[in-house]
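Need the bound structure for adenosine-5'-diphosphate, inputs here:
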Amino acid sequence: MADLLLENVYKVYEGGVRAVSDFNLKIADKEFIVFVGPSGCGKSTTLRMIAGLEEITSGSLYIGGSKMNDVEPKDRNIAMVFQNYALYPHMTVFQNMAFGLKLRKTNPKEIESRVKRAAEILGITDLLERKPKALSGGQRQRVALGRAIVREPNVFLLDEPLSNLDAKLRVQMRSEITKLHKKLATTFIYVTHDQTEAMTMGDRIVVMKDGLIQQVDSPATLYEQPRNVFVATFLGSPQMNIFQATLEKEGDHLFVSFGEGQRAEFTKTKAKQLSNESYVGSTVLFGIRPENIKLGKEGIQAKVDVVEHLGSETIVYAEVKGLKDNVIVKIPTNYEITEGMEVRLVFDMDRSHLFDSETKQAIMGVPDVNKIPAAVENGDLVLGKQRFPLPESVKERFFDFTLRDLKEIRVPSGEVSTEALPDSIAVQAKVDFVVPGSDSTAVYATTDLATGQFVFRMKDSALKAGDEVTLYIAFSDISFHSEDGLRLNSREKVSDNKAPCVVKTKDGKTSVKVGGKTLVYPDLGVKDGAYTMRLLSDKIGFVFDKKFAKKNKIERVDAANTLKAKAYDEDRIGDKNAVYCSVKGFPSYVTAVLPAVFSVYKMPVFKFVINQDSFVLE
Ligand code: ADP
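Answer from helper R.:
Posting the output first, comments after.
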């Protein structure tokens, strides 16, 4: 199995460049996933962290369920194919492909059979005795792929492998790589800045910008339901028209008005998908793709500015009074359209988009998560009128203080089932309406979870308006958040942080002996004797390790009452970092919540500062 899990992965290069921030992604075994985004958005860095060529600053990487952060690249069972295929010029194709296996001292017979098999898969059997200079660009790239295939890796990483090829060859290699993925039935992670490659090759696409994931979805869903203006305009050519408009409502009719008195009305179903009524009356960004506009007899008045006849289609750049940019229209070839002509534009409003003018996030359409107001009372999760007992598996991942802060749970719209699930909540829902998409159907339903609408997406759904259905949501798919949106649950069980200790007061000073160390405080006013010390996760301080402080030129503050901690993992929660450490005297690990600037990957050994308010005696 070669499924991958990246959790809260960050990469900060020396000098402070934040290349990747809070990258969270599950990649299924045998999936073909594409990372796409403009140059510098962090695609290659992410790929290189997966390969082990770049250290992960913080966060975790799992491959096939095993943590890989500290595993050597050669032991990760991964093969990487780069843009410049770097073949050895003095070696034949066979020798180039065999080289890596030879270094690993693989049996020569095995090498021969693997190289031959790979050559067959790639259709280069008759090239095996040639040298690279006698090969075309496409053939060389195939050899580079072959070199990866012979290693029989669990995961293939491909970093812009086609960008050195000419346009025609790129198209051909694109489909060859897709076929290769099917043949090898292995996980593929493919990096490109080319949206066409992304759209045609990926099962799923990860769109990145400035080191942050913008959206992860199937190509069709990304195209039809972009979550923000960046995704909307990054995919599609010519790109989506986006212009400022005012959202207006008259009775139950919803419109956008723009330009000089132009107006377009949403269909009833589309109008219901507005996420928040408070947008009515305000300025929003309206989006519509060129192919979702037609020329008609009635509609928005426009004048043709430029026409491009591309043979298979005609692109019209139309001027609408009061709009800064031309509206781009893509229609079937029509040589009758000429520059200067007065036309009417008809928008397919069911396929239109609406974005917040400040945040640039989508405010209409299928949301990727449902945000539901929540609280915890007596160990029950309270959602509207419903109460659900929190299972132990959830409770143990909360710190006491975070449970108090719970204000909202988030349920991804793609993680809802109509079949019973273990450890889940069951919710009664009534279907309001459905919105079909190319590869999934979005169902808008009413529930008694206190929010208006609950939206979920399903691959095959026969649900229709009026149907009543029970929805199951696994606790493991629910994330818990505070008022300001911070995630409150940690990945691992939070330890109870308890250790036996001996307390003694003398001359106005209380000493607490724990794990062979004596901590000294002003008189704590407790009777002498044996106690249990419980450290409070969010009240523990820390001081830098001496060597680390020196190396990073950090002034090291000395503190009294410290315990040496050796960390083995961390989990980022908002602007905090939960660290899991072993501390002498504590039978189980100790969990502490420290500022997120601290990362155990940079400094696995440090000291906890145990102040008077960092613990209780029980
Ligand atoms: P992409 O693959 O999307 O083009 P990269 O992952 O290569 O982007 O780069 C992401 C960011 O990290 C960029 O701002 C880049 O300049 C920076 N970066 C990449 N490698 C290094 C490095 N070795 N040292 C410092 N900054 C780097």
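Comments: The longest strand covers residues 424-436. The pocket of adenosine-5'-diphosphate is lined by residues 13, 17, 19, 37, 39-45 (CB under 6 Å).
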